[in-house]
Amino acid sequence: MALSRALRCCQRVFSWIPVIIISSVVLWSYYAYVFELCFVTLSNHLERVAYLLIFHVCFIMFCWTYWKAIFTPPSTPSKKFHLSYSDKERYEMEERPDAQKQILTEIAKKLPIFTRAQSGAVRFCDRCQVIKPDRCHHCSVCETCVLKMDHHCPWVNNCVGFSNYKFFLLFLSYSMIYCVFIASTVFQYFLKFWVGDLPNGPAKFHVLFLLFVALMFFVSLMFLFGYHCWLVAKNRSTLEAFSAPVFQNGPDRNGFNVGLSRNLRQVFGEDKKLWFIPVFTSQGDGHYFPLRTLCESENPLLANEGKWMEDGGSDEESAVVSWLTLAS
């Protein structure tokens, strides 16, 4: 037991290494750009002020979005999706798999769940003892079920899901802007150092490596950002792109795709002025998502709307029901 605790502790410590690496590179880039380039290399005061102003805007937005992506806790299923004491006891007492499956099916009828496991059974997490909402998956690193889980990212040491997906996308975009700005402003001085128009010194080393590092990170980020833009446009998570969600009528990769405009609003919200600011504006609460094609007669949520509302549904939940009705 003590050994297991020690291993988990070591794992937590080592999981911060990628974050420390990124933070160290960014802090070095700040020193190299502000002091070695702007204060040591630049002689034009107007150019220096302009560079410093724009650089600090990019730097602040990068740090803000990175901080939010790291320290925003993953959203987990609400109590409605946890088994009650009596249901849990009934489920654990039953040894037959088919009977356990039937128990979960009966409980799920009271919940707005549309997806199923590959076997067609209700998706249930034995470790968290929770019926999984649509698009929810268990993260073995975070050791919890995460709403609309996309993936676990070592570079932010956090699960990317419903609560911080917008922050993760903004982190990627502001990282690219940060790299592009550094590369574009450093390039002319890189050439001057390279051909010998500027004297050798510590600044030369920093300026040369600034360009290489900025371009290297930009290329890697460009592919990752492009992939996630495609995912947002299709309203898929990384997990759903590799394994299509299974509905009552079978697997469907486009099951949650409700059109480009509505897909964007699900992640970034209705107010476009807040799209590029790292504040939470995503629609809903991560438990319920509009479906692309859903007939009312096949809608288990609408068929059990009365039961669900009788079990303590709030005004917000009623609004979600209406939202799903319109989506269908």
UniProtKB/TrEMBL annotation:
<feature type="domain" description="Palmitoyltransferase DHHC">
    <location>
        <begin position="123"/>
        <end position="242"/>
    </location>
</feature>
<comment type="similarity">
    <text>Belongs to the DHHC palmitoyltransferase family.</text>
</comment>
<keyword id="KW-0808">Transferase</keyword>
<dbReference type="InterPro" id="IPR001594">
    <property type="entry name" value="Palmitoyltrfase_DHHC"/>
</dbReference>
<feature type="transmembrane region" description="Helical">
    <location>
        <begin position="12"/>
        <end position="31"/>
    </location>
</feature>
<feature type="transmembrane region" description="Helical">
    <location>
        <begin position="167"/>
        <end position="191"/>
    </location>
</feature>
<dbReference type="GO" id="GO:0016020">
    <property type="term" value="C:membrane"/>
</dbReference>
<dbReference type="InterPro" id="IPR039859">
    <property type="entry name" value="PFA4/ZDH16/20/ERF2-like"/>
</dbReference>
<keyword id="KW-0012">Acyltransferase</keyword>
<dbReference type="GO" id="GO:0019706">
    <property type="term" value="F:protein-cysteine S-palmitoyltransferase activity"/>
</dbReference>
<keyword id="KW-0812">Transmembrane</keyword>
<keyword id="KW-0472">Membrane</keyword>
<dbReference type="Pfam" id="PF01529">
    <property type="entry name" value="DHHC"/>
</dbReference>
<protein>
    <recommendedName>
        <fullName>Palmitoyltransferase</fullName>
        <ecNumber>2.3.1.225</ecNumber>
    </recommendedName>
</protein>
<keyword id="KW-1133">Transmembrane helix</keyword>
<feature type="transmembrane region" description="Helical">
    <location>
        <begin position="203"/>
        <end position="227"/>
    </location>
</feature>
<feature type="transmembrane region" description="Helical">
    <location>
        <begin position="51"/>
        <end position="71"/>
    </location>
</feature>
